[in-house]
Amino acid sequence: MIDLTPSQKKTVAAGVTVVAFSFIVAFVLALGWVLVKFLSFASSAITPVIMGLFLALLFKPYYEWIRSRCRNPTLSVVLMLLSVLVPLGLVVGFGGSFIVGQAKNFISHAPTIVARASAWVNGQFPYAWDTLQQFGADSEGALALFLRDPARFSDEGIKMLSGQYGGAAMKAGVGVLKYVMGMVSWLVTLIFFTFFLTRPSMTGTDYVRELPFLKDETKKFVAKQIDTFTDILVNFFQRQVVICLIEGVLYGTGFMLVGVPYGFLLGFLLGVLNLVPFLGTILCLPIVLPVAYFGDGGSMLRLILALSVWLAGQFLDGYLITPKIQGEKTGLGYAGVIFSFFFWGVVFHSMLGLLLAIPLSACCVVLWRALKERYIKGVI
Fold this sequence. Notes:
Blueprint: H1 6-41, H2 43-67, H3 73-124, H4 126-162, H5 167-198, H6 204-208, H7 216-257, H8 263-273, H9 279-294, H10 300-325, H11 333-348, H12 351-376
Helix pairs in contact: 2-3, 2-5, 2-7, 2-12, 3-4, 7-8, 7-10, 7-12, 8-9, 9-10, 11-12
């Protein structure tokens, strides 16, 4: 038997620990890879379930308020749906034509606004304009090249499968099939929405009761992590959605009042798209400001007023709306939320990635905090 010195024993122990930790990390990564592949493969089946869960999280407080006054759960669901869908239908019926009209007018007048903006840039920065034109031509050519092959492949594939005269019929059949599958997907979403909505709320303690093999201390620890994970989801999907809808109405009304063409449409999109922090501002504000200046009746005053509306919205959001509604951070922060949407969207290459972005990132945050609290804190 080899007799090791105390320092050698420490070295061997450290090496064994590193090897064991590496195996654990490799196993977790492999398990995560398998899970991602499975979710990507089954995304069409999982997406309605996830959407039903998120909608249930959003409407859960309202349902519980109605449930406290109506003892019948089925009747409570019906009353809640009617109280939401009827006003929504009225808004769409009376305001939908207004929004659709704004969208059509914006699309039809967009070339005129772009031409005015182009002429202004060409007059102010002629050298930069030449560079932009060359870049635009190159981009247009690259986009056309990218889009040309899939279109040709699609046409040739249809001809190969159904013959020269069967392409139209096959396209029609595919369209009908997609419509039916979409209706089925919405029906499944409604079913799971009702299921998650009527299911009693559970805490981490309720979940760990189903794990009797755990020690009492471990049960408390696991229950705490489950509650933290739930709080992050609830804070985001209940409060952040409400915040974005309020901001959309405020921005849309503000831009419309200062005379920005299609102001309500652009402002509402700006607020709603901020569900991903700053996404609405990044995408819509560069459109709002040129429209305010180069649109019909545009002037420097209207540009300043539009910018003032946006600044006022930022002030209200930072000091009134978000503190009153959100109360506390989701646990991820702005940078974390932005990274979550883009990272998981790329990983899954589908709508499922955007739906699972916050839950998966919240799970990572909770696991990291638990690991740091339980294992790393005493080591560092």
